[in-house]
Design a protein that fits this description.
The protein is an alpha/beta fold. The protein contains nine helices and nine strands. The strands form three sheets. Strands 1-3-2-4-5 form a five-stranded parallel β-sheet, with helices on both faces. Helix 3 packs parallel to helix 4 (about 120-135). The longest helix is centred in the last third of the chain and has 24 residues, at about 235-255.
Length: about 260
């Protein structure tokens, strides 16, 4: 069974085998994405991914429940740009903690924090460890920005030459929104901007590390874009989405099997 949590009747949920169920808790963001993408880009992409996932995938090995999505995350790095909404780290921590506690009280002990915004990543990793310790549950963080999640498809489809060509409001995100919600894209306002010059003489300091910058978005971009969205196409977006849905299926299968 694969269903959205909100669509399940309470009595039916009570009959679900807890030991064979993974709960996905989606966490996104509402923040500026340059002058060409909607502020809900991260939320739109994650919502579409999970909708397609629920419609297409089946798991004879167990069950998957998709909890309600948190549309606003920790986006204070973008607050210099209009339209950004943010929670503080403390508030997001509390919201995720309390939702997970509710999930656990319903008897579910295997949870994947399913994240589509890089600004949430560090906090979610910390929360996951605390929740593991406090509640003795199996908990994971699914993240596609600071992992190799997109690596295989980007080898085939990425045209950006800059290491920052896929980062924010970029070739990847713009392609996905052109595929999912083209009516929300202002293609006339697309600009490319990457911080390559800023780091060209630095051996260690970058946005990727090994020495990470404590940065806000305006430190590294004037437009709000970090990447090369001019290379985006709806065709790429369709390929990216299919890839993501299929890869999420593999991740969930592994989480269903994995014991610790």
């Amino acid at each position: 069974m694969v269903k959205f949590w909100k669509d399940v009747i309470s009595n039916d949920m009570d009959e679900i085998e807890r030991d064979k169920t993974v709960v996905l808790l989606p966490i996104a963001a509402v923040e500026q994405h340059g002058r060409h993408l909607p502020v809900g880009t991260d939320s739109i992409i994650l919502e579409a991914l999970l909708k397609q996932f629920v419609e297409e995938k089946e798991f004879p090995e167990g069950n998957v429940l998709v909890a309600p999505q948190l549309h606003v995350g920790k986006s204070n790095e973008h607050m210099d740009f209009c339209g950004t909404l943010t929670l503080t780290a403390k508030t997001l921590y509390s919201v995720v903690e309390e939702l997970v506690e509710s999930i656990v009280k319903s008897g579910f002990k295997k949870i994947i924090l399913t994240n589509s915004h890089g600004g949430n990543t560090d906090l979610l990793n910390m929360i996951a460890r605390d929740l593991r310790i406090d509640h003795h549950i199996a908990i994971y963080v699914f993240d596609w920005w600071f992992t190799d999640f997109w690596a295989d498809i980007l080898k085939e489809e990425k045209q950006s030459k800059s290491p920052y060509g896929v980062f924010h409001a970029c070739e990847l995100e713009t392609s996905l929104i052109l595929h999912l919600a083209p009516e929300t894209v202002n293609v006339d306002n697309i600009v490319d901007e990457v911080p390559d010059e800023m780091f060209k003489n630095e051996q260690y300091i970058s946005l990727f590390g090994p020495v990470n910058l404590g940065w806000k978005t305006k430190d590294v971009t004037r437009s709000g874009v970090i990447g090369t969205p001019s290379l985006a196409t709806a065709q790429k977006g369709a390929k990216f989405m299919k890839y993501a849905v299929d890869k999420l299926e593999s991740i969930v299968l592994e989480a269903l099997r994995f014991q610790y």
